[in-house]
Every structure is written in C-alpha cells, then in structure tokens.
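seq/struct pair 1
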Amino acid sequence: MRLCILDNDILDGHLAETCSSFGAMFVRLFDRAGVDWRMDIFNTQRGQYPASFDDFDAVLLTGSRADSFSDAPWAVELRRRVTTLLETRKKMVGVCFGHQLIALCMGAAVGRAPQGWGAGRMAYQWLDADFPQAAGRSEIALLASHQDQVFELPRGATLVARSAFCPVAAFTVGNAVFCIQPHPEFQEEVSAYLLEKHREILGEEKYIAARSSLKQGHEGDHVARMLMARYGPQANPDDLVTLRCDETLSIVDVARRSNAVVLTVLAVAADLVPLNVVPALNATARFGLVTLSRRQEAPALRIVREQLPGWVAAMGEKA
C-alpha cells in the first residue's frame, strides 16, 4: 500500500518545532497503529505534487489554516486536481480542510459555521455499523479545531458521523472516499496549543470547557486502524478481480502496471517482488493453491480445499 499525503499547510513557530508538519503527524499516527504503508508527503502550498497519482493506492488531504474555498492559486490548483481524482474514483481521505475541500469539489456548500469554532474534544454520533473496525460503535470522540463546516451532504455521499454542532462530521462515497471534520492525527498537546492561541476568540467559558475536555482522551488511533482496515490489503474483498490468460507475458505485464498478484514461473517475472507463501510452494508439487491472507474467499474454494488432498493422493498412486 502506497499513500500520497497532500499536506495543505506550512506550520511555523511552536507547531513547526514540535510537530514538523500535518503530514508528519499522519505518518506518526499510522505508525502507532502499526500500518505497514509507504507514505510520501507533498506540500500543496509549495506546489508539490507527485508526477502521477497512478503511482499511489490512495491520497490523503490534511488540514490547513486556509479556507477550502480560498481563491489563492495553490487552493484553486488543489481543487482542480481533487476534482480530477474524484472523476477517476481515486481512493481518498479528507481531514478537516481536506474534508471540506472534497465536499466543495463535489458541489456541496462549505463556509463559516454560524455556531462558531469547534474546539477541543468533541463527540459525534457514529452511523455506519458496517464500517471496518466499527462494529457496535454508536459514538466516536476526536479532537477538533475548525471554524468552517460542510453545510450539506454532497450528492452521492453517505453520512457516517454527525453531532448537533457539526451535522456533516464525516461521510463516505462508496468504497473510494472517506472524509472527516475532526483531527484523528492530533494529540492533546497540539489541541492545547491551538486552544491557547484562539483563547480570546473562543471566549473564556468555551476555552475552559474545551481545555478540560482534553483530559477525557480521544480515539484518533482507532480511526487510523479503521482506515487501515478500509484501505489496507484486506480491504474491499468483493472488489477483487481474477484474471486468467494463456499468454504468460501479458498477465505478468498486468502485474507490473498494477497491484495485482500473479502466480507464474519466476524466470518470466524476475523483476517483480516475490511474495512469501505459507506453506511454501514445493517446486515438484503437482498442485498449487495460493490465496491472499485476510481476503474473502470465493465459495468454490472451500470445495477445492476439501478435494485437493484426495486429488494429490490419487496422483501419487498413479505415479
């Protein structure tokens, strides 16, 4: 799994010294969750983008102090690129600013929230019991810092989380897009710093309540595990496609250009990365059955498993 992180801010002062960047916060978040992904960070305000998004399995848009509806050239360019990614059904995750920008690119209204700033630890009603790693969940608590909101659910999206303060707190679009307003990557120290920075704007009563809420903890690390389950190697087993081809070189070429797994003779695919198979395939075996761990099996595979020992025994008797 290769993740493209589009970092949409340039931190300064204390946050730059302690956190480096929003992108780096996400790398640490996924590392804590045990995610074995390759993650590359590109700063959109500096005009940094990958040569091709095709090189990545998913794209994550971070938060930003900027407005998602800004006319700044970098924000206009980012919206143009995200619109293209939506058209190609690229897997994407949007957080805070990224959540708002993706919704905006989908035609939803986004702007200053009349409720004012969302700050500190905030609880949301969780609506999708089928979301990976969310079985039985009815609530989720995360750290927030935002004055803008998505005002309406984008067309074609499914509402995943909400609260009275933030009615569109998270949404999905099929299996491709997941957007969320609060910050799973934040730690309490980051929220405490931002609360102090916005203390005058928040007002003393709201500041004290938000500051006190940080003692209750948050579930950012669990959101990382949810995203791992949604976008990792075990995700969306029903989307798998099995390709068969009598011409070996053609099917090997498909594997070179995609994340497909191919079972073939090593000599014709020496440039591909070998996968460890458990148990290892014996070079003299007459039958080989290879599956991907944690993937959904086709119903007929159970029959093959049951019959395979008998077939192997029968071949041995004839030998």
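seq/struct pair 2
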Amino acid sequence: MSDIEDRANDARRLGLMIVESRSGQALAGAIPHLREAADLFAREARDLRRAECLIDLARVHLRLGQAADAGSALGADGQPWDPSPFWEETLRLFGAHDQAVRERLVTRVRSADPLPLVIGLHGAGWTAAQDYHRGLPDLKVGYHRGWYGLAATYNVIIVLPHGHHRREETMSFAAPEQITDIAHLPHTLQARGYRVDNTRVYACGLSMGGQEALMAAGRHPDVFAAAVAFNPVVDLATLQRDIQAIDRIRGTDAAARIANEVGGLPDQVPGAYEERSPLSVVEGLAGVPTMICWSDRDFIVPRQVSHHSYRLYLQVKALSAIAPICEYNHTCSHGVMDFTQEVCWQLHEWSDYELALHWLLIHCRVPAVTG
C-alpha cells in the first residue's frame, strides 16, 4: 500500500469518525476529509474506494439538507457518477430447508470473474441491516465497524441472511434450518446469476453470528474455506443459564426468548441445545481454518475461557494438534484499564470485519479429488 493510499485511508477514517460522533451542522467537519480521501484514491486509480468516499460525502450533504451538493459529490469530476461497479440489494430467496421465502441482504461488485463469497451472520436481536451498518444506534463508536463498503474494497460478494428462526425473529441461535440455509447459499446465489468462487466461501459473525459461523463451517467443512467468530456463543445451554442474571441487570428477556426459540430449557431439551452448540462439530472444525476472537471480560457471553471460545479451541487442538485454528483474547487491545460493566458490555460488541476479511481471503479450499 502506497503512502498516498495510507493518507487516503486516514482521511476517510477521520471523516467517518466525525460522522459517527457529531450531529447537526457539526457534521460539516467531515466534508474536507472525505473530499481529500476521494481525491487521493483517484490519484492512485482506486476507483471503487473513491466511489465509497463520494457516497459518504453525499450522505453527509444530505444529512445537512444540501441536496444539490450531494448530487455534485456523486459527479464530483464533472462526469456522471456510475454506481454500477458495486451495489446493495435485498433478495427474496427460497430457503434450502423448507423452501420458504427468506430475505438476504447482498452487496456485490461487477465482475466477469467468479468472486469470493463472505456470509456475514448477525448477532442476536440485530437485523442484517444493522450488522451491515455499524450495529445498533447506541453502540460505542468504533466497536462495530459493520460490512459497509467492504465488498467494493476487497472485490468480494457479501451476503447477510436475515435469519431462519423457529419462533423468535432475529434470534435463530444456529437453528438447524438456519445452518442448512447458510451452507446452501453459494448454490442459491449462483442460481440467481451471481458468479461465486466455490473454493473461496467464508463465514463470519459476531456473538450469535459467531456461533452460526462456527456451526456452518463445522457441519459443512466441504463448503467453507475458512471462518471467523467474534465473541461467539459456543455452549448455548451455559449461555441460557448465565443470561438470566444479565436479563435482571439489563431488563431484557433474552433467556426466555432463547428457551422459546430452542423449545424449552436446557434440562428439558438438552439435545436441542447440543445440536446448536459448536462443541458438537469439533471434528468438522478441525479441518477448516478458523479464527476466534474473544474477551475474558465479556459481559454478554461470560465464561469464554471455561465454556465458550477457549474451551472450543482446546477441544479442536486435542483432536488434532495441527488443526488450523487460532484464538485471540482481545481484551487488552483497546487501551482500556477500567473494566466497568459498560466497558465489558462493549467488549462483547467489538468486531472488526475488515480484519476478518484480511485473514479469510488468504485461505482457499482445495476441492476433493474424485475418481
């Protein structure tokens, strides 16, 4: 990466920080930084990155009520801006499990060649759109970057399933039907005209999404080239018990909703909890490159060492010492010294999908040799 591109990335990052942290007329402070980023990317012939900056700039102008300036931003060089290299769309596709119509948010770039496919899986209670656009409105700035713009930057297709739940919308918690749909998505997208590189299909998610990424890769190692999980649920029965105390603190009803989704409490339907827990697919995960990022201070999914991420890592390594799995406790990566309840909550919400993409895209699945 050149010095000019580094400067462009820094300028855009500063502009987006202003957008995230300010409101009203103060948003105007982001404009010169986004313009600078777009100009620098143009000098490096990074057309897609420049287009991202122009979209960011237009959105700032629109929030300021400057419709004409927004239009100028999208044609900043005096030429009509062509958005065709990348776009977002919501598809209504048939689920592989029951053929019911389900929505998928897809971001793709225009390419004549097959592209890597990244399946992004959202956290419990979130929508796919919220996961795409930096999470819930009250998240700490910078703790969840989202997927926005990454398809164009890394020349990939990103698809975010809205979730195949049984009873609780946005809380699928690795329902078997959801995992079947996730594994079938490459075929489903190809049937709709998307050019997918079947050797480069990846799963990635935060919290419940991390649980589903691990389940999909472990249950279908013949589909996925690699997987990344941020602060995942690994032992669903343990989470169901632990989260009752969290519900009392937060005033939520997550424990009841998990029980409703799964079909009862862990003591009532232990098998149903086990089939949704990545601990049940250790053998499959041992053959899929996997990265798990977790925190020992996680407030939402506690006991990451004894019951969740680190436990899963140890079980995979016990099965195969050379299994391609790695783990990282990110607690000390944020410059935090005072681990208040709020901070420990925010540590659970941390994810860096761009970091995940850097790691995922170095992996390629070798198709099995037949005959």
